[in-house]
Structure formats: structure tokens, C-alpha cells
Amino acid sequence: MKIRAIRHVRGFDVARPISIGVMLGIMLPLVLLPLLSIFVYGTNKGLGTFWSALVAPEAIFALKLSMVTSFWATLFNVIFGLFAAYVLSRYDFWGRNAVIVTISLPTAIPTAVAGFALLLLWGPNATLGRLLNSQGVQLMFTPYAIILANIFVTFPLAFGVIKPVFDTMSRSMEEASATIGATRWQTFWYVTLPSLRGAIVGGALLTFARAVGEFGSTILVSGNLAERTQTAPLYIFAKFNEGQIEAANAIAIVLALLSFVIFSVLFFARDWLEWESQET
Amino acid sequence: MTPKMALASDSGQLHVSWAPDREQRTGVAASVLSISKRFKKARVLEDITFDVAEGESLVLLGASGSGKTTILRIIAGLELPDKGRVILHGKDVTDLPARERGVGVIFQAYALFPRMTVEKNIGFGLKIRRVPRKERKETVNRLLKLVQLEEHRKKYPWQLSGGQQQRVAIARTLAYKPQVLLFDEPFGALDAQTRVKLRREIRALLRQVKVPAVFITHDQEEALELGDRIAVLNNGHLEQIGTPDEVYNQPATEYVATFLGAANLLLGVVSEGSVEIGSARLPAAKETRRFREGQSVKLVFRPEDVCVSQDANLPEGCRRLANGVIEEVNFVGAYERLNVRLDLTHRRQTENEAPLYQVTINTPERMTGVPIMVTRPKPEANATKFKAGDRVAVGLTSFSVLANYTLARQR
Hints:
heterodimer; A: 1% strand; B: alpha+beta; 6-stranded mixed β-sheet; 5-stranded antiparallel β-sheet
């Protein structure tokens, strides 16, 4: 049979199953199988092993530390991102574009470089670190260093989501609010902020997901001390190096599920978050 | 000019006279005094001064870039003038921020708050003024009724049509009793039918609430219908301010004449109490009084102020201008439009030539004539039919003579 004959058999488009098949065939070994293997290997010694690996004090501590440090980094970056986006879309000043580029820079920097840079500034023998040391404060190799690294690495994420919404928001809405008699703060609180709700939630989830998974910078600034400065990704790395595959795998499953949940929310809740701002 | 008619709204409560009510114009509600404004190098406004009386609607009419929006923004406090003052009800507000001026601005794109319902949008001004909830609710109810949106109170802006959104925007400003309402091209985003309907509604509404209003538009029909007075702006200059009748029938400048309605324009010279245009002489003793002999002037007249006749007898009150040839007859619904080419070429009369009909413009030289546009009402058009090629005598019932300062602009 000639190819031409099978191409359109009674309205059946052969290109469709073939394209879908090729796409899935490429994705399978690259993305789906690695994810699947976490779950398969993590549970093949029985759920009991998985559970005991999960509730080990070291593992619990690592997960908690990851959550807490990511939470503070997210809180900071969402608030700062909101503020920076407001300033940079409302006011024009000399060097504004340079600032926008700089804010977005941390996404492009390798995380190990970021961690190294932080050490060079805040480390015990570094410029600012020595100043803090003289006050009896040590920042590096503490949970605060992890928060600092998370802030640095996730800096542009919330900003990047919120800024475009600010840019496209009509100025006349805020002007209307001002002529009605609202102060700047009232206008921001009642008019601007509600329109940013979707962007804020989206930016926060993105920042949190990224911060929880951060490894490169964290391992340099935290010292990787078990039950003191060891976050979940560092725990996975440490246990893997010690040959405790089950312990590493249990945490890996939790982190994978967490990202999965966060990105599902981002994907499916987008319409929900934005529904009120639909245009006619 | 404006026809007197009573408008009964759907609810049957409103009976409003359409004609401007001069008695209402007592005190001055808002004044703009010698406002000037530059943006970078460009001069946007130059020495603009006008008043808006209590209960009056003033229309700022101008092309885009004429500076009309800037004036509105300066009154609202959204823009600062370089020079000049803004006075609202006797108080100098030039240095006050927008929120302390108590003006209501209705934006072209409505600018409703997307995350608030209709009710909350309308009540916003009261909420931030800390008006008690009960009183707030009463005011919102009253306004919802006034703009006839009671059944839409729980809806969000995106669930409303453009006209409905605009009515919410008006109610939202009326809630806090603004000193003056400022409409920034309020009908620009609406379709033609809604536009006419909404502008009549707003007109009726303003009569009811008696809040002075400033409208911005580039639509002359809108200006004539909405304005108790019209201010025509051109390139940051105030060309003329007056009632629709004054601005339309006695345009002070060529720009006003051509921007507001159609106008014919002929260049001439003042000569012994008449205007000389080529070989034609139009007696105009009164109109030329303020010009000196030999001064270059422009003769401006509306298409409907031209009378044409196939015999030499023009109707009473119609001053003879020249002869012409009908070039084109168009019937455009309510009236008939004629293109007439006037014979204004200066030439010596040839021998045996009849004084009226043997004119050069029906010969190969005809293109040297000057075309004008004439409109005739239906009854007149039906009584005497014209066809292309007919020779006519042309006269004017009304016209203006303006000094020829500037080069003729594109009309």
C-alpha cells in the first residue's frame, strides 16, 4: 500500500498518533521514567521500610528545616518582589533597566557560584562576616545562611511573575481611586493588591518550590551539619553518599510529591486565581 | 439650534427639557485660569482660561493632541500645570492632590475596580470616607436606582456591557457628591447606538443631579448635543468658547468653522463694503466693518446657508454671490447635497453673452471654477429638481468674514 493511501483513511489523521507517540517516547526516558523509579525503588522494600526511613529524626529535621527556611525566603521575596515590581513599573529613573536586569540575574547564575559569592561576603574571614563576628554573630553555617542563600537564588521568581501584571494594569484604575479620594495606601490595599492576588500566589508557590529544592548554594553556605543545617536535598545527597539508598529515597519521594502538588496547583488553579479579572 | 423636546425615560419619572437652562447658571463652579503646560519640549497648553457655571455642562472639543485631555487631568489633579490656577467653588486647589479635590472623573475605559461588585464600586468613595454602613447602603441603593442598575448590583464589572459599566462609573463618582464631574471621552469605547442612547441618559441625569460637568470629545455631534457651552481647542489654544449656537453660527476662527460642522471657505478681499472674490462681489457692509479696505479675508459659510436658483431671482434675504454649475447631485437621506462649481474667474464679458447663463465653467475651462458644497432640505429639493450641468445663481443667507491671518489649513 502506498503511503499516500494510508495518510487519510476516512478522516483518520495518522500524524496525530505518531506525533503523540514520538513526544511521549522522548519524554519517557528523560522525565517520566526517572520520576517513576523514585517511587518504585522507594517502596519496593515494603511501605514499612519507607515509613521508618521517613520518620527518622534526621530526616524529619531535614524536611522541617527545608520548609522553614523556604517559608522565610518566600515571604521575603514575595514582599520584596511586590515592592520592587511596584517601584520599577511606576517610576522611571536613570538606570532603571539596569536594575531590572540585575534583579533577574540570579536565575542565570549557577547556584554553586551564588553560594560561593555569599561565602566570600559573609564568611568568617570576609568583609561583612568579620564585622558580624566582632559583634559575636556568625551567619554562615547556620539556618540563617540557608535562608540567605534561598533568598538570593529565588530572588527574581516572584518579581518576574508580579512585574508583568503591574505593567499591564491600567493606570486609570489607580487614578480613579485617587480622584474618588483614596490615599495611596488605600488605593494599593483595596484596588491594586486584589488584582495581583493571582500573581502573588503564583509567585509564592514558584519561589517556595524552587527554595525547597535548592542544593548548590545551600551545601556551600550551610556546612551540611546533620540535625543542624542539613536541608532535605542535602540529606538525600549525604545518605546517598553513605550508601543508605532507602533513607535518601524516602525524602526524595516527599520532595517529588511536593513539587508535583505545587505545580499542579500552579497549573490548574490559574483559572481560579484569575477568574474575576476576565475581560468581557 | 438645539431642539426643544421633552425626554421621558423608561421609568417614566424623568421629564427633562432638552434646551439649556440659563437660569441655572448662576455661580461659578470651576475656573481654569491661564493654564500652561509643556511636556518635555512640546507645548501642550497655552494660556487656557475658562469658567464652568453651577449646573452647566461645558464641552471641550478638539482633535486628538489638542490638549483637551491634559486640561481635564489638570482640573482633576492628575497632572500639574506649569503655570496657572485651578479654582473649584472659589477655592484654589492648584496645589491639592487629586484625592483632596472632590472631583469625579469618568474615564473612557470606565476604570471600574475589577475585584469589586457593582455595589462595592459605587460604595468605595463612601467606604474610604468612613461613612457608616447603613448610610452607605442607602446611598448606594439610591444611586443604583438612579442609573437603573438595581438588578446588576451583585455583578462584577466584566459581566456588564460597556454602557452599563459607564453608568456604574458615573454612580461611583456621584456617591461622594463631587464638586464637578469630568468626563474623559466617555463614549469613545461604545458602539454608535449605545453612544447616542447613553449620552441622552447622561444629559438627563445631569439635569437631575445638577452637578457641573466638563466633557471631552472630538465628536462635534456629541459636543452640540451635550454642551450648554462648547470650548473649541486647537493645538493647546482655546479658539472659541460659546453656546452651541454661537460656536456653530458665528465661528470666530477658520478652525472652529471647519472643525464644527461642514464649511465652505473662499478667499477674498474687502472692497467698499463688500467681499470681492475673484470676479464676484458679495455685499457685506456689516460683516466687513471691522476690516480695512483691501484687507485679505476668508469668507466662511455653511452648506445649508447657500441658496441656489435657476433664474436670476434669489429668495429674499439671500445675498447674491456668483453663478455656478451643478456638478453633482447626491440625495443623502435627510437632505440633498449639491456640488456646485462657482464661476469666479476674472474675465471680460464676451460679446452677445447672456449675463447669467453663458459662463465659462460649462466650457472646457470649467475646471478653473471653485467648487462649493450646498445642502438643501427635502421639500426644497423636491420642489425644484436639479441635475448635473444645470446653471444656477448662487447666494448666501448667512456667512462669516474672518481675517486671513494664517495659511489655509486642510479641511
